C-alpha cells in the first residue's frame, strides 16, 4: 500500500510539473487558456489514478469500498461530499488539493484551479449573476433545513454549555467596559486635572469606540469567521485596557480607552451570532436570553471591584511628581481580567460550522458538528452513538478572486487582499438594504435607536439626578458666618461646607488643613500663614491678602476670584491636582452601591425573559416589555428623594432588560448567516450612537427639569414598541 501511495504521489507531482512548464513558456494571452487546460488535465489524471486505486483504501460507510466522494449516489444527491469525513487517514494527503482550491469532480464549484470564485475565462461558462444568486439562495435554504436537523441530532449538552461560559466571559467584558470610566472618573478627574469638557469626553469616548468596533468587527466576522474576529477584538481590548492603567496623560488615557472600546465593540454582535449557530430552534431563544445574564455579571463584577479597590488609597505608589499609580489604576487593570480569560478559553473552541458550510468548507464544518455530537453523547452516557450525517449541503461560492501571482511584492498582495475584503464587506452592507431585507433593516434601526436612546439616557440620568439631590441636601446644611474677627488662632482641623462673609483674620495660622466646599467673600487676611493646605471646591472672592505667606498649598490662581494680594508670597506650591478621597458629597461607596443595585435588578427580568422567550414569542416579549417600561417612566416624576430614585432605577432596569434580550434574539434570527454579524454590528453601532445622543441630551436637563427627559424617554419607548409589532415573528423558524 505504501509503494502504491508513493507512486501515485509521484505521478501527480509529475503532472503538476508539466503544467507549470507549459504555463511558463506560454504567452500572456494564451497563458490563461493553457492555465485552465493544464489544471483540468491535472485533475483528470488525478481522478483517473484515484479511481484505479480505490480498492486499496476502503472507507467506512461506503458500500463499494471506494472513497465517499466517488460514490455516484452521493455525488448526485449533494455537492458537498468529502472523503476526509469518512475514515480518512490524516497522514494520507491525497486530498491536499482540495484545500488549495482545486475543485472536485462533484463539487459544482467551478472548473478552474483556484477554487470557489475563480474567474471563468471560457465564454460558455459565464453565468448570469441573477441566476447564480438564485442558486445560492436555494443552497442556503437547503442548508438551513439540513443544518437544523443536524443540530437536533447533536442535541444540547456539554458542548453548548462549555461554549456558553466561554462566550459569556466575552459578553461580561463588554459589560465591564461600560462601567469602568464611570467608576474611575471621580478619581481620574483629580489625578489628571480634568475640566468639565474633558470629563464629558472621557465619559463618552468608550461609546464612540464601541460604535466603530461593532461596525468593523461585525462586518469582518462574516468574512473571516466568528472565532477569529472575536479573538482579535478581545485581544485589542485587553492590550489597550492594560496600557490605559499605566499612562499618565489625559490624551494618552483617552486614546487607550477609545481603542479599548473599539476592541470590545465587536463582542455583542459576534457572541450572539456565534452562539446561535450551535443552537436548535426549540431552545434558541431561551439560551440566548440566558447568555445575556453575563452582561449583568459584568456590571456586578465592575461594581464589586470598584467597591473593593478604589477606596483603598494605600494601594498606590508614585515616582516623584511625574508618575503616580493610584488605586483607581489598579481597578482599571483588574477590569481587563474577564477579557483575558475569554481569550484563553476561546482558543480551545472551534469556529462556527455554519460559517464553514456557508463558505463551501464542507470538511471543516462536518468535523466540528461531529465534535459537537460526540461531546454531547459522551457526556450523556451514550458514547456508542455514531454521528450518522455523511454529507452536508454547502453554499455555492460566487465571489471573484484575483490571482496576484508569486512574483508580486508582499505589500501589494496585502493591499489587494484588503481591497478585496473591503469590497466584500461593502457588498454585505449593501445587501442588508436590498429589497428583500430593506424593510426589516429600517424597522430594526428604528427599534434599536429608540430603545438605546431612552435606556442609556435614563441610566446615566438616574445617577446624575441622585448626585443633584445629594448636592441640594448638602447645600441645605451650609453654615454662614458674617462680620467675624479672628486673631492669633491656629486652624489645624477640617473646615467644611461654610460661607464666611466680611470677616477679618489677623495673624492666624492655617496648618495641615483641609478645606472642603469653603467660600470666603469680602474678607481680609492680614499677616496670615498657610502651610500644607489642601482644598476641594474652595474659593476666595473679593478678598484682600496682606503680608501673608503660602507654603506647600494647592491654592492656585483660579481659586482667587477678584482678590488683591499685597506683599504676599507663594512658596513650593503643590503640583497637579491633589486627590481627596474623603469627599462625602461624592461618596464612593454610594456610587458603587447604586450601580450594583441597578445592575442586580435586571436579574428577575433576565430570568423571566429566558423562560418565556420561546413560549410567548420574541415580538410579544419585545413590545410588552417596551410598553411597561414606557409606563414606568411616568413614575419618575415622584422620585424626589435619593432612595426613591434608586428604587425607580432598579424598576426601570428590571423591566427593560426583557426587551433588550428579545431584540438581540430577533436580530440574530432575521438575517441569513452570511449577513448576520454584519447586520447585527451595524445595528449595534447605531445603538451606541443613540446612546451618545441620549446621554448628552438627558444630562443637559439635570437640575433644570425632570419633565423633558421623561417625555423623551417615554415617547421613544412608545414609538419603539409600536414599530416592534411590525417586525416578523421568528419563533419556531430555522436559522437562515
UniProtKB/TrEMBL annotation:
The keyword Membrane applies. One of its GO terms (cellular component) is synaptic vesicle membrane. Residues 22-31 have a biased composition (Basic residues). It is a multi-pass membrane protein. GO terms for biological process: chemical synaptic transmission; neurotransmitter transport. Interacts with SYT1/synaptotagmin-1 in a calcium-dependent manner. Binds the adapter protein complex AP-2. Residues 32-42 have a biased composition (Basic and acidic residues). InterPro entries: LD_SV2, MFS, MFS_dom, MFS_sugar_transport-like, MFS_trans_sf, Sugar_transporter_CS, SV2. Residues 163-731 form the Major facilitator superfamily (MFS) profile domain. It is found in: Cytoplasmic vesicle, Secretory vesicle, Synaptic vesicle membrane; Presynapse. Keywords: Cell projection, Cytoplasmic vesicle, Glycoprotein, Membrane, Neurotransmitter transport, Phosphoprotein, Synapse, Transmembrane, Transmembrane helix, Transport. It comes from Takifugu flavidus (sansaifugu). This is Synaptic vesicle glycoprotein 2A. Plays a role in the control of regulated secretion in neural and endocrine cells, enhancing selectively low-frequency neurotransmission. Positively regulates vesicle fusion by maintaining the readily releasable pool of secretory vesicles. The chain crosses the membrane at residues 161-184, 204-221, 228-246, 252-276, 288-310, 330-349, 442-462, 589-612, 619-639, 645-667, 679-701, 707-725. Residues 1-124 are annotated as: Disordered. It comes from the Eukaryota.
